[in-house]
Amino acid sequence: MAQTRTEALHRNAEGLDTRSPQEILSSLAEGQIEAAQAVRAAVPAIAEAALLVAGSLRAGGRLVYAAAGSSGLMALADALELPGTYGIERERILILIAGGEEALRDLAGAPEDDAGAAADAVAQAGVGAGDCVISLSASGSTPYALGALDEAKRRGAATIAIANNRGAPLLERADAAILLETPPEVIAGSTRMGAGTAQKIALNMLSTLAAVHLGHVHDGYMVNLFADNAKLRGRAARIVAAVAGIAPEEAERRLEESGGAVKTAILLAAGAKDAGAARTMLERSGQKLRPALSEIRGERKGDRLPSRQNRT
Question: Which residues are catalytic?
Answer without folding.
Answer: 81, 112
